[in-house]
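Continuing from the previous page of notes. For each protein in this section, the sequence appears first, followed by its C-alpha coordinates. Read the first protein now.
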Amino acid sequence: MPRAPSVATPPLPATDGLARAIAQFAQSDGDYTTAIPGLSLHRRHETTAPLHCIFSLGLGVVAQGHKRALMGDEVITYGPGQSMVITIDLPVISHVTQASVHEPLLGLMLMIDSRTIVQTAAEMSLPPTRRSAPRPISIETLDVHLLGDLVRLVHLLDEPALVARLAPLIQQEIVIRLLAGPHGPHLQHLAANGSPSQQISRAVAWLKQNFAQPLLVDELADRAHMSPSTFRQHFRALTGTSPLQYQKQLRLQEARQLMLSKHLDAGNAAIRVGYESASQFSREYGRLFGAPPQQDVKRLRSVPA
Protein backbone atom coordinates (compact mmCIF):
# COMPACT_ATOMS: atom_id res chain seq x y z
CA MET A 1 0.00 0.00 0.00
CA PRO A 2 1.56 3.34 -1.02
CA ARG A 3 2.56 5.66 1.81
CA ALA A 4 1.07 9.12 2.02
CA PRO A 5 3.59 11.79 1.06
CA SER A 6 5.02 13.56 4.06
CA VAL A 7 4.64 17.31 4.38
CA ALA A 8 8.07 18.90 4.43
CA THR A 9 8.76 21.50 7.09
CA PRO A 10 9.80 24.73 5.38
CA PRO A 11 13.48 25.50 6.00
CA LEU A 12 14.40 28.35 8.28
CA PRO A 13 15.66 31.40 6.37
CA ALA A 14 19.40 32.06 6.37
CA THR A 15 20.30 34.92 8.71
CA ASP A 16 23.96 35.29 7.70
CA GLY A 17 23.35 38.73 6.18
CA LEU A 18 21.68 40.00 9.34
CA ALA A 19 24.48 38.53 11.47
CA ARG A 20 27.11 40.35 9.40
CA ALA A 21 25.17 43.60 9.63
CA ILE A 22 24.92 43.34 13.42
CA ALA A 23 28.59 42.34 13.79
CA GLN A 24 29.63 45.45 11.88
CA PHE A 25 28.28 47.64 14.70
CA ALA A 26 28.53 45.28 17.69
CA GLN A 27 32.23 44.45 17.42
CA SER A 28 32.71 43.34 21.03
CA ASP A 29 30.53 41.83 23.72
CA GLY A 30 27.77 44.09 24.98
CA ASP A 31 24.34 45.60 24.43
CA TYR A 32 24.34 48.52 22.02
CA THR A 33 21.71 51.22 21.78
CA THR A 34 21.56 52.77 18.33
CA ALA A 35 20.58 56.00 16.62
CA ILE A 36 17.33 54.30 15.58
CA PRO A 37 14.79 54.68 18.41
CA GLY A 38 13.87 51.33 19.91
CA LEU A 39 16.60 49.33 18.14
CA SER A 40 19.36 47.67 20.16
CA LEU A 41 22.06 45.22 19.02
CA HIS A 42 23.57 42.44 21.16
CA ARG A 43 26.72 40.33 21.08
CA ARG A 44 28.09 37.59 23.38
CA HIS A 45 31.13 35.39 22.69
CA GLU A 46 30.27 32.70 25.26
CA THR A 47 27.34 31.16 27.07
CA THR A 48 26.02 33.13 30.02
CA ALA A 49 24.55 32.38 33.42
CA PRO A 50 20.76 32.75 33.79
CA LEU A 51 19.87 36.41 34.29
CA HIS A 52 16.67 37.89 35.68
CA CYS A 53 15.39 40.59 33.34
CA ILE A 54 12.27 42.18 31.89
CA PHE A 55 11.27 41.44 28.30
CA SER A 56 9.38 44.41 26.86
CA LEU A 57 6.90 44.80 24.03
CA GLY A 58 8.78 44.25 20.80
CA LEU A 59 10.43 41.94 18.28
CA GLY A 60 13.53 39.93 19.11
CA VAL A 61 15.68 38.08 16.57
CA VAL A 62 18.82 36.01 17.08
CA ALA A 63 20.85 36.01 13.86
CA GLN A 64 23.58 33.72 15.22
CA GLY A 65 23.77 31.57 18.35
CA HIS A 66 20.94 30.41 20.60
CA LYS A 67 19.13 31.70 23.69
CA ARG A 68 16.73 30.30 26.26
CA ALA A 69 14.16 32.07 28.41
CA LEU A 70 12.23 30.76 31.41
CA MET A 71 8.82 32.34 31.95
CA GLY A 72 7.18 30.86 35.01
CA ASP A 73 7.34 27.10 34.39
CA GLU A 74 7.68 27.44 30.61
CA VAL A 75 11.03 27.09 28.85
CA ILE A 76 11.38 28.94 25.54
CA THR A 77 14.32 28.35 23.20
CA TYR A 78 15.03 30.29 20.03
CA GLY A 79 17.79 30.84 17.52
CA PRO A 80 18.58 31.80 13.90
CA GLY A 81 15.63 31.74 11.51
CA GLN A 82 13.08 32.43 14.24
CA SER A 83 11.37 35.60 15.39
CA MET A 84 10.12 36.28 18.91
CA VAL A 85 7.35 38.77 19.67
CA ILE A 86 6.56 39.93 23.20
CA THR A 87 3.25 41.73 23.74
CA ILE A 88 3.52 42.57 27.43
CA ASP A 89 6.41 43.41 29.74
CA LEU A 90 7.46 40.10 31.27
CA PRO A 91 9.81 39.11 34.10
CA VAL A 92 11.88 36.23 32.73
CA ILE A 93 15.14 34.38 33.32
CA SER A 94 17.21 34.50 30.14
CA HIS A 95 20.61 33.19 29.11
CA VAL A 96 22.77 32.46 26.08
CA THR A 97 23.03 28.71 25.42
CA GLN A 98 25.23 28.66 22.32
CA ALA A 99 28.01 31.12 21.47
CA SER A 100 31.76 31.11 20.88
CA VAL A 101 34.58 33.46 19.94
CA HIS A 102 34.40 32.36 16.29
CA GLU A 103 30.57 32.31 16.19
CA PRO A 104 29.32 34.75 18.82
CA LEU A 105 25.68 35.24 19.60
CA LEU A 106 24.43 38.15 17.48
CA GLY A 107 20.92 39.48 17.90
CA LEU A 108 18.69 42.51 17.94
CA MET A 109 15.67 43.81 19.79
CA LEU A 110 13.22 46.25 18.25
CA MET A 111 10.84 47.86 20.71
CA ILE A 112 7.35 48.57 19.34
CA ASP A 113 4.91 51.16 20.59
CA SER A 114 1.55 49.58 21.43
CA ARG A 115 -0.22 52.62 19.97
CA THR A 116 1.44 51.90 16.62
CA ILE A 117 0.15 48.33 16.70
CA VAL A 118 -3.38 49.44 17.58
CA GLN A 119 -3.45 52.15 14.91
CA THR A 120 -1.95 49.94 12.19
CA ALA A 121 -4.27 47.03 12.99
CA ALA A 122 -7.26 49.38 12.74
CA GLU A 123 -6.15 50.48 9.27
CA MET A 124 -5.69 46.91 7.99
CA SER A 125 -8.44 44.51 6.97
CA LEU A 126 -7.39 41.65 9.21
CA PRO A 127 -9.46 38.49 9.70
CA PRO A 128 -10.73 38.12 13.28
CA THR A 129 -8.44 36.12 15.51
CA ARG A 130 -9.56 32.70 16.69
CA ARG A 131 -7.00 32.38 19.46
CA SER A 132 -8.89 32.46 22.74
CA ALA A 133 -5.91 32.27 25.08
CA PRO A 134 -3.24 34.75 23.92
CA ARG A 135 0.39 34.04 24.78
CA PRO A 136 2.67 36.83 25.99
CA ILE A 137 5.54 35.43 23.89
CA SER A 138 5.24 33.87 20.43
CA ILE A 139 8.04 32.19 18.47
CA GLU A 140 7.55 31.87 14.71
CA THR A 141 9.65 31.18 11.64
CA LEU A 142 11.23 34.41 10.48
CA ASP A 143 9.54 35.59 7.30
CA VAL A 144 12.09 36.31 4.55
CA HIS A 145 10.50 39.70 3.83
CA LEU A 146 10.62 40.63 7.52
CA LEU A 147 14.25 39.48 7.58
CA GLY A 148 14.98 41.79 4.65
CA ASP A 149 13.37 44.71 6.50
CA LEU A 150 15.56 44.08 9.54
CA VAL A 151 18.74 43.92 7.44
CA ARG A 152 17.81 47.23 5.80
CA LEU A 153 17.09 48.77 9.20
CA VAL A 154 20.49 47.78 10.62
CA HIS A 155 22.33 48.89 7.45
CA LEU A 156 20.59 52.26 7.76
CA LEU A 157 22.91 52.95 10.70
CA ASP A 158 25.59 53.50 8.04
CA GLU A 159 23.60 56.50 6.79
CA PRO A 160 22.91 58.62 9.87
CA ALA A 161 21.62 61.53 7.79
CA LEU A 162 18.77 59.34 6.52
CA VAL A 163 17.79 57.66 9.80
CA ALA A 164 15.13 60.21 10.77
CA ARG A 165 13.43 59.91 7.37
CA LEU A 166 13.73 56.22 6.53
CA ALA A 167 13.76 54.39 9.88
CA PRO A 168 10.07 55.15 10.66
CA LEU A 169 9.07 53.85 7.21
CA ILE A 170 10.96 50.57 7.66
CA GLN A 171 9.63 50.17 11.21
CA GLN A 172 6.08 50.73 9.95
CA GLU A 173 6.59 48.03 7.32
CA ILE A 174 7.87 45.68 10.03
CA VAL A 175 4.71 46.23 12.11
CA ILE A 176 2.53 45.60 9.04
CA ARG A 177 4.33 42.35 8.25
CA LEU A 178 4.06 41.21 11.86
CA LEU A 179 0.31 41.84 11.88
CA ALA A 180 -0.16 40.15 8.49
CA GLY A 181 2.00 37.14 9.35
CA PRO A 182 1.97 34.30 11.91
CA HIS A 183 2.36 36.76 14.80
CA GLY A 184 -0.80 38.56 13.68
CA PRO A 185 -3.36 36.78 15.90
CA HIS A 186 -0.98 37.17 18.81
CA LEU A 187 -0.76 40.94 18.29
CA GLN A 188 -4.45 41.43 17.55
CA HIS A 189 -5.29 40.54 21.14
CA LEU A 190 -3.20 43.53 22.18
CA ALA A 191 -5.04 45.75 19.70
CA ALA A 192 -8.57 44.53 20.50
CA ASN A 193 -10.31 47.29 22.42
CA GLY A 194 -11.48 46.13 25.82
CA SER A 195 -9.85 42.69 25.53
CA PRO A 196 -8.35 41.10 28.67
CA SER A 197 -4.89 41.34 27.09
CA GLN A 198 -5.28 45.07 26.59
CA GLN A 199 -6.60 45.61 30.11
CA ILE A 200 -3.77 43.60 31.67
CA SER A 201 -1.27 45.50 29.51
CA ARG A 202 -2.59 48.76 30.94
CA ALA A 203 -2.36 47.38 34.47
CA VAL A 204 1.24 46.33 33.83
CA ALA A 205 2.05 49.79 32.45
CA TRP A 206 0.62 51.33 35.64
CA LEU A 207 2.66 48.95 37.79
CA LYS A 208 5.87 49.89 35.95
CA GLN A 209 5.25 53.56 36.71
CA ASN A 210 4.11 53.07 40.32
CA PHE A 211 5.90 49.96 41.60
CA ALA A 212 7.22 51.80 44.67
CA GLN A 213 3.67 52.44 45.92
CA PRO A 214 1.80 49.93 48.12
CA LEU A 215 -0.13 47.57 45.86
CA LEU A 216 -3.82 46.88 46.41
CA VAL A 217 -4.76 44.20 43.92
CA ASP A 218 -8.49 44.94 44.23
CA GLU A 219 -7.87 48.54 43.13
CA LEU A 220 -5.72 47.36 40.22
CA ALA A 221 -8.49 44.94 39.22
CA ASP A 222 -10.97 47.79 39.34
CA ARG A 223 -8.74 49.78 37.00
CA ALA A 224 -8.89 46.85 34.57
CA HIS A 225 -12.70 46.61 34.98
CA MET A 226 -12.44 43.04 36.27
CA SER A 227 -13.30 41.23 39.45
CA PRO A 228 -10.22 40.54 41.63
CA SER A 229 -10.34 36.80 40.91
CA THR A 230 -10.71 37.28 37.14
CA PHE A 231 -7.95 39.88 37.16
CA ARG A 232 -5.55 37.56 39.00
CA GLN A 233 -6.37 34.73 36.57
CA HIS A 234 -5.73 36.81 33.44
CA PHE A 235 -2.66 38.48 34.95
CA ARG A 236 -1.02 35.14 35.74
CA ALA A 237 -1.99 33.70 32.34
CA LEU A 238 -0.26 36.57 30.54
CA THR A 239 2.76 37.26 32.77
CA GLY A 240 3.34 33.88 34.38
CA THR A 241 3.23 35.39 37.86
CA SER A 242 0.91 37.13 40.32
CA PRO A 243 0.55 40.95 40.53
CA LEU A 244 2.41 41.03 43.87
CA GLN A 245 5.26 38.88 42.55
CA TYR A 246 5.43 41.05 39.43
CA GLN A 247 5.69 44.20 41.55
CA LYS A 248 8.38 42.56 43.68
CA GLN A 249 10.48 41.73 40.62
CA LEU A 250 10.14 45.29 39.31
CA ARG A 251 11.27 46.66 42.69
CA LEU A 252 14.25 44.33 42.96
CA GLN A 253 15.35 44.91 39.36
CA GLU A 254 15.23 48.68 39.93
CA ALA A 255 17.10 48.41 43.24
CA ARG A 256 19.82 46.37 41.54
CA GLN A 257 20.21 49.04 38.85
CA LEU A 258 20.33 51.81 41.45
CA MET A 259 23.12 50.06 43.34
CA LEU A 260 25.04 49.43 40.12
CA SER A 261 24.61 52.76 38.35
CA LYS A 262 23.99 55.21 41.21
CA HIS A 263 26.22 53.45 43.77
CA LEU A 264 23.47 53.45 46.41
CA ASP A 265 23.86 51.12 49.37
CA ALA A 266 21.29 48.38 49.93
CA GLY A 267 19.36 50.32 52.58
CA ASN A 268 18.86 53.43 50.46
CA ALA A 269 18.03 51.39 47.36
CA ALA A 270 15.43 49.44 49.33
CA ILE A 271 13.73 52.62 50.53
CA ARG A 272 13.83 54.15 47.03
CA VAL A 273 11.90 51.22 45.49
CA GLY A 274 9.29 51.01 48.24
CA TYR A 275 10.60 48.59 50.88
CA GLU A 276 10.03 49.51 54.53
CA SER A 277 12.08 46.62 55.93
CA ALA A 278 15.76 46.30 55.01
CA SER A 279 15.84 42.68 56.20
CA GLN A 280 12.86 41.77 54.02
CA PHE A 281 14.55 43.48 51.06
CA SER A 282 17.77 41.48 51.60
CA ARG A 283 15.87 38.19 51.91
CA GLU A 284 13.82 38.74 48.76
CA TYR A 285 16.82 40.09 46.85
CA GLY A 286 18.90 37.02 47.69
CA ARG A 287 16.02 34.73 46.78
CA LEU A 288 15.69 36.31 43.32
CA PHE A 289 19.32 36.94 42.41
CA GLY A 290 21.00 34.14 44.36
CA ALA A 291 23.15 36.33 46.61
CA PRO A 292 22.76 39.20 49.15
CA PRO A 293 22.72 42.72 47.61
CA GLN A 294 26.33 43.72 48.34
CA GLN A 295 27.74 40.39 47.23
CA ASP A 296 25.65 40.35 44.06
CA VAL A 297 26.59 43.90 43.05
CA LYS A 298 30.27 43.24 43.72
CA ARG A 299 30.09 40.16 41.49
CA LEU A 300 28.34 42.09 38.70
CA ARG A 301 30.94 44.85 38.78
CA SER A 302 33.72 42.31 38.41
CA VAL A 303 32.18 40.82 35.25
CA PRO A 304 33.37 42.46 31.99
CA ALA A 305 30.60 44.16 29.97
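Done with the first. The second protein uses the same format. Note its length before scrolling.
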Amino acid sequence: MEKIYKYPIKVVSRLTGLSVFVIRAWEKRYEIVTPTRTDTNRRLYSEEDIEKLKLLSEAVQKGHKISGLSDLSIDELRSVLEIKPSAGVINSANGNAVIHPDFKTTEAAKSSCIEAIKNYDAKTLETILMKASLTMSQPHLLENLIVPLVYEIGELWHSGDLRIANEHLASAVLRSFLNGILERYRYKENAPVFITATPLGQEHELGALIAGITAASLGWKVVYLGTGLPAEEIAAVSEYLKAKVVSLSIVYPNDDPQLIKDLMNLKRMLSQNVSIIAGGRAVEGYLNVLGDINAVVTKELTQLRTILESIREIQHH
Protein backbone atom coordinates (compact mmCIF):
# COMPACT_ATOMS: atom_id res chain seq x y z
CA MET A 1 0.00 0.00 0.00
CA GLU A 2 1.28 3.47 -0.91
CA LYS A 3 2.24 5.49 2.15
CA ILE A 4 0.22 8.68 2.62
CA TYR A 5 2.49 11.40 3.94
CA LYS A 6 1.24 14.01 6.37
CA TYR A 7 2.90 17.32 7.11
CA PRO A 8 2.88 19.55 10.22
CA ILE A 9 1.56 23.09 9.91
CA LYS A 10 4.99 24.77 9.88
CA VAL A 11 6.04 22.70 6.87
CA VAL A 12 2.70 23.46 5.19
CA SER A 13 3.32 27.15 5.81
CA ARG A 14 6.69 26.93 4.06
CA LEU A 15 5.29 24.92 1.14
CA THR A 16 2.30 27.18 0.52
CA GLY A 17 3.70 30.58 1.44
CA LEU A 18 0.78 31.12 3.83
CA SER A 19 1.44 32.05 7.43
CA VAL A 20 0.45 29.63 10.19
CA PHE A 21 -2.03 32.26 11.40
CA VAL A 22 -3.75 32.48 7.98
CA ILE A 23 -3.98 28.68 7.63
CA ARG A 24 -5.62 28.36 11.03
CA ALA A 25 -7.97 31.30 10.35
CA TRP A 26 -9.11 29.83 7.02
CA GLU A 27 -9.68 26.46 8.68
CA LYS A 28 -11.75 27.91 11.48
CA ARG A 29 -13.80 30.38 9.46
CA TYR A 30 -14.28 28.58 6.15
CA GLU A 31 -13.45 24.91 6.90
CA ILE A 32 -11.29 24.89 3.78
CA VAL A 33 -9.28 21.88 4.92
CA THR A 34 -9.71 19.47 7.79
CA PRO A 35 -6.32 18.23 9.03
CA THR A 36 -5.95 15.08 11.05
CA ARG A 37 -4.66 15.32 14.62
CA THR A 38 -1.89 13.49 16.43
CA ASP A 39 -2.28 12.11 19.95
CA THR A 40 -0.83 15.41 21.16
CA ASN A 41 -3.38 17.40 19.09
CA ARG A 42 -0.89 18.59 16.45
CA ARG A 43 -2.37 19.29 13.02
CA LEU A 44 -1.21 17.08 10.13
CA TYR A 45 -2.02 17.94 6.52
CA SER A 46 -2.18 15.76 3.43
CA GLU A 47 -0.62 16.60 0.07
CA GLU A 48 -4.15 17.26 -1.19
CA ASP A 49 -4.64 19.81 1.63
CA ILE A 50 -1.37 21.50 0.63
CA GLU A 51 -2.38 21.61 -3.04
CA LYS A 52 -5.71 23.23 -2.18
CA LEU A 53 -4.10 25.82 0.09
CA LYS A 54 -1.56 26.70 -2.61
CA LEU A 55 -4.33 27.19 -5.17
CA LEU A 56 -6.34 29.32 -2.75
CA SER A 57 -3.29 31.44 -1.96
CA GLU A 58 -2.69 32.07 -5.66
CA ALA A 59 -6.37 32.90 -6.25
CA VAL A 60 -6.40 35.43 -3.40
CA GLN A 61 -3.22 37.03 -4.76
CA LYS A 62 -5.03 37.48 -8.08
CA GLY A 63 -7.92 39.36 -6.45
CA HIS A 64 -10.46 36.63 -5.67
CA LYS A 65 -12.19 36.71 -2.27
CA ILE A 66 -11.53 33.70 -0.05
CA SER A 67 -15.21 33.60 0.99
CA GLY A 68 -16.21 32.85 -2.60
CA LEU A 69 -13.61 30.12 -3.04
CA SER A 70 -13.95 28.10 0.14
CA ASP A 71 -16.42 25.52 -1.22
CA LEU A 72 -14.57 24.90 -4.50
CA SER A 73 -12.78 21.64 -5.22
CA ILE A 74 -9.17 21.48 -6.36
CA ASP A 75 -10.28 20.99 -9.99
CA GLU A 76 -12.65 23.95 -9.73
CA LEU A 77 -9.88 26.11 -8.27
CA ARG A 78 -7.60 25.11 -11.12
CA SER A 79 -10.33 26.19 -13.52
CA VAL A 80 -10.64 29.55 -11.77
CA LEU A 81 -6.87 30.01 -12.03
CA GLU A 82 -6.59 29.13 -15.71
CA ILE A 83 -3.66 31.27 -16.94
CA LYS A 84 -4.58 33.80 -19.55
CA PRO A 85 -2.06 34.68 -22.28
CA SER A 86 0.26 37.60 -21.61
CA ALA A 87 0.14 40.74 -23.74
CA GLY A 88 1.45 40.05 -27.22
CA VAL A 89 0.64 36.35 -26.99
CA ILE A 90 -2.30 34.95 -28.97
CA ASN A 91 -4.29 31.77 -28.53
CA SER A 92 -4.02 28.76 -30.75
CA ALA A 93 -6.98 26.56 -31.60
CA ASN A 94 -6.29 24.18 -28.74
CA GLY A 95 -6.13 26.95 -26.14
CA ASN A 96 -2.36 27.02 -25.63
CA ALA A 97 -0.33 30.17 -26.09
CA VAL A 98 1.35 30.92 -29.40
CA ILE A 99 4.81 32.18 -28.51
CA HIS A 100 6.27 32.68 -31.98
CA PRO A 101 5.21 31.93 -35.56
CA ASP A 102 7.74 29.07 -35.62
CA PHE A 103 6.03 27.31 -32.68
CA LYS A 104 2.31 26.84 -32.11
CA THR A 105 2.55 26.39 -28.33
CA THR A 106 5.02 26.55 -25.46
CA GLU A 107 4.90 22.75 -25.41
CA ALA A 108 5.97 22.70 -29.06
CA ALA A 109 8.83 25.08 -28.27
CA LYS A 110 9.92 22.88 -25.37
CA SER A 111 9.83 19.79 -27.58
CA SER A 112 11.97 21.59 -30.16
CA CYS A 113 14.44 22.49 -27.42
CA ILE A 114 14.67 18.85 -26.34
CA GLU A 115 15.19 17.76 -29.94
CA ALA A 116 18.02 20.28 -30.34
CA ILE A 117 19.61 19.04 -27.10
CA LYS A 118 19.42 15.42 -28.25
CA ASN A 119 21.11 16.44 -31.52
CA TYR A 120 23.85 18.40 -29.69
CA ASP A 121 22.64 21.48 -31.58
CA ALA A 122 23.49 24.38 -29.28
CA LYS A 123 22.84 27.02 -31.95
CA THR A 124 19.28 25.88 -32.59
CA LEU A 125 18.56 25.67 -28.86
CA GLU A 126 19.82 29.22 -28.40
CA THR A 127 17.73 30.43 -31.37
CA ILE A 128 14.54 28.88 -29.97
CA LEU A 129 15.07 30.56 -26.61
CA MET A 130 15.77 33.92 -28.21
CA LYS A 131 12.66 33.72 -30.42
CA ALA A 132 10.52 32.79 -27.42
CA SER A 133 11.85 35.77 -25.48
CA LEU A 134 10.75 38.16 -28.25
CA THR A 135 7.02 37.66 -27.67
CA MET A 136 6.69 36.29 -24.13
CA SER A 137 6.77 38.31 -20.95
CA GLN A 138 9.63 37.34 -18.67
CA PRO A 139 7.46 35.66 -16.00
CA HIS A 140 5.63 33.71 -18.72
CA LEU A 141 8.94 32.73 -20.36
CA LEU A 142 10.42 31.47 -17.08
CA GLU A 143 7.33 29.72 -15.74
CA ASN A 144 5.99 28.15 -18.93
CA LEU A 145 9.10 27.37 -20.95
CA ILE A 146 12.38 27.60 -19.03
CA VAL A 147 11.36 25.90 -15.77
CA PRO A 148 9.47 23.02 -17.47
CA LEU A 149 12.41 22.59 -19.86
CA VAL A 150 14.93 22.41 -17.01
CA TYR A 151 12.78 19.83 -15.22
CA GLU A 152 12.39 17.69 -18.33
CA ILE A 153 16.13 17.79 -19.01
CA GLY A 154 16.70 16.56 -15.46
CA GLU A 155 14.16 13.77 -15.81
CA LEU A 156 15.58 12.62 -19.15
CA TRP A 157 19.10 12.65 -17.73
CA HIS A 158 18.07 10.63 -14.67
CA SER A 159 16.21 8.10 -16.84
CA GLY A 160 19.19 7.68 -19.16
CA ASP A 161 17.43 9.19 -22.19
CA LEU A 162 20.00 12.00 -22.28
CA ARG A 163 23.74 11.56 -22.02
CA ILE A 164 25.84 13.64 -19.66
CA ALA A 165 27.12 15.51 -22.72
CA ASN A 166 23.55 16.42 -23.72
CA GLU A 167 22.84 17.75 -20.23
CA HIS A 168 26.08 19.74 -20.16
CA LEU A 169 25.39 21.29 -23.56
CA ALA A 170 21.87 22.28 -22.51
CA SER A 171 23.12 23.72 -19.22
CA ALA A 172 25.79 25.78 -20.98
CA VAL A 173 23.27 27.34 -23.39
CA LEU A 174 20.67 27.97 -20.68
CA ARG A 175 23.30 29.40 -18.32
CA SER A 176 24.42 31.89 -20.97
CA PHE A 177 20.82 32.79 -21.84
CA LEU A 178 19.78 33.32 -18.21
CA ASN A 179 22.96 35.23 -17.37
CA GLY A 180 22.20 37.56 -20.26
CA ILE A 181 18.77 38.31 -18.79
CA LEU A 182 20.15 38.84 -15.29
CA GLU A 183 22.90 41.19 -16.45
CA ARG A 184 20.39 43.53 -18.09
CA TYR A 185 18.86 44.49 -14.75
CA ARG A 186 19.86 47.67 -12.96
CA TYR A 187 19.14 48.32 -9.30
CA LYS A 188 18.92 51.28 -6.98
CA GLU A 189 21.76 51.95 -4.55
CA ASN A 190 19.51 51.22 -1.56
CA ALA A 191 18.09 48.02 -3.04
CA PRO A 192 18.07 45.04 -0.65
CA VAL A 193 20.64 42.35 -1.42
CA PHE A 194 19.57 38.91 -2.61
CA ILE A 195 22.31 36.27 -2.68
CA THR A 196 21.70 33.20 -4.81
CA ALA A 197 23.90 30.11 -5.05
CA THR A 198 23.99 26.36 -4.66
CA PRO A 199 25.45 24.88 -1.47
CA LEU A 200 28.42 22.52 -1.32
CA GLY A 201 27.73 19.29 -3.21
CA GLN A 202 25.05 20.87 -5.39
CA GLU A 203 26.34 21.61 -8.89
CA HIS A 204 23.15 22.38 -10.86
CA GLU A 205 22.97 26.15 -11.09
CA LEU A 206 20.02 26.96 -13.36
CA GLY A 207 17.54 27.15 -10.49
CA ALA A 208 19.77 29.64 -8.69
CA LEU A 209 19.90 31.83 -11.80
CA ILE A 210 16.12 31.65 -12.29
CA ALA A 211 15.59 32.69 -8.66
CA GLY A 212 18.03 35.55 -9.18
CA ILE A 213 16.19 36.84 -12.26
CA THR A 214 12.90 36.68 -10.36
CA ALA A 215 14.37 38.74 -7.51
CA ALA A 216 15.99 41.22 -9.90
CA SER A 217 12.63 41.80 -11.60
CA LEU A 218 11.26 42.90 -8.22
CA GLY A 219 14.03 45.45 -7.62
CA TRP A 220 16.49 43.40 -5.58
CA LYS A 221 20.24 43.70 -6.01
CA VAL A 222 21.13 40.14 -7.01
CA VAL A 223 24.52 38.62 -6.29
CA TYR A 224 24.98 35.25 -7.97
CA LEU A 225 27.79 33.23 -6.38
CA GLY A 226 27.75 30.11 -8.56
CA THR A 227 27.72 26.46 -7.52
CA GLY A 228 29.04 24.28 -4.72
CA LEU A 229 29.78 26.96 -2.11
CA PRO A 230 30.69 26.05 1.48
CA ALA A 231 28.44 27.54 4.14
CA GLU A 232 31.18 29.83 5.47
CA GLU A 233 31.66 31.41 2.02
CA ILE A 234 27.98 32.14 1.59
CA ALA A 235 27.78 33.55 5.11
CA ALA A 236 30.88 35.71 4.59
CA VAL A 237 29.43 37.33 1.47
CA SER A 238 26.08 37.81 3.19
CA GLU A 239 27.75 39.54 6.13
CA TYR A 240 29.92 41.74 3.92
CA LEU A 241 27.04 42.89 1.70
CA LYS A 242 24.43 43.02 4.50
CA ALA A 243 22.18 40.70 2.53
CA LYS A 244 18.51 40.31 3.41
CA VAL A 245 18.01 36.97 1.64
CA VAL A 246 20.15 33.93 0.91
CA SER A 247 18.54 31.76 -1.76
CA LEU A 248 19.73 28.17 -2.26
CA SER A 249 18.98 25.88 -5.20
CA ILE A 250 18.95 22.18 -4.22
CA VAL A 251 18.60 19.82 -7.18
CA TYR A 252 20.71 16.67 -6.74
CA PRO A 253 21.35 14.62 -4.69
CA ASN A 254 18.39 14.64 -2.30
CA ASP A 255 20.03 12.66 0.51
CA ASP A 256 23.42 14.22 1.23
CA PRO A 257 24.14 14.06 4.98
CA GLN A 258 26.91 16.65 4.59
CA LEU A 259 24.43 19.15 3.19
CA ILE A 260 22.31 18.76 6.30
CA LYS A 261 25.33 19.75 8.42
CA ASP A 262 26.19 22.62 6.09
CA LEU A 263 22.66 24.04 6.26
CA MET A 264 22.76 23.96 10.05
CA ASN A 265 26.16 25.69 10.02
CA LEU A 266 24.94 28.30 7.57
CA LYS A 267 22.06 29.22 9.85
CA ARG A 268 24.45 29.61 12.79
CA MET A 269 26.75 31.91 10.80
CA LEU A 270 24.12 34.14 9.20
CA SER A 271 22.76 37.21 10.94
CA GLN A 272 19.33 36.74 12.47
CA ASN A 273 17.69 39.18 10.05
CA VAL A 274 18.75 37.17 6.97
CA SER A 275 15.99 35.04 5.45
CA ILE A 276 16.93 31.68 3.92
CA ILE A 277 14.92 30.56 0.89
CA ALA A 278 15.37 27.12 -0.65
CA GLY A 279 13.99 25.60 -3.83
CA GLY A 280 14.71 22.92 -6.40
CA ARG A 281 13.62 19.41 -7.27
CA ALA A 282 15.53 17.80 -4.36
CA VAL A 283 14.39 20.23 -1.68
CA GLU A 284 11.84 17.79 -0.22
CA GLY A 285 14.69 15.51 0.83
CA TYR A 286 15.80 18.19 3.29
CA LEU A 287 12.48 19.48 4.65
CA ASN A 288 13.32 18.53 8.24
CA VAL A 289 16.57 20.46 8.40
CA LEU A 290 15.09 23.36 6.42
CA GLY A 291 12.33 23.51 9.01
CA ASP A 292 14.89 23.47 11.82
CA ILE A 293 16.70 26.49 10.35
CA ASN A 294 13.42 28.34 9.58
CA ALA A 295 14.06 28.36 5.85
CA VAL A 296 11.20 29.14 3.49
CA VAL A 297 10.70 26.41 0.88
CA THR A 298 9.44 27.53 -2.52
CA LYS A 299 8.24 25.33 -5.36
CA GLU A 300 6.91 27.95 -7.76
CA LEU A 301 8.11 31.34 -8.95
CA THR A 302 4.78 32.96 -8.05
CA GLN A 303 5.38 31.85 -4.48
CA LEU A 304 8.94 33.21 -4.53
CA ARG A 305 7.66 36.58 -5.73
CA THR A 306 5.09 36.71 -2.93
CA ILE A 307 7.72 35.90 -0.31
CA LEU A 308 10.17 38.52 -1.60
CA GLU A 309 7.47 41.19 -1.71
CA SER A 310 6.49 40.30 1.85
CA ILE A 311 10.09 40.60 3.07
CA ARG A 312 10.44 44.04 1.50
CA GLU A 313 7.11 45.16 2.94
CA ILE A 314 8.18 44.10 6.43
CA GLN A 315 11.43 46.04 6.04
CA HIS A 316 9.55 49.21 5.13
CA HIS A 317 7.59 49.12 8.41
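What the second structure shows: Residues 76 and 82 are 10 Å apart (CA to CA). The chain has three domains: 7-80, 90-182, 186-315. We return to this in next week's lecture.
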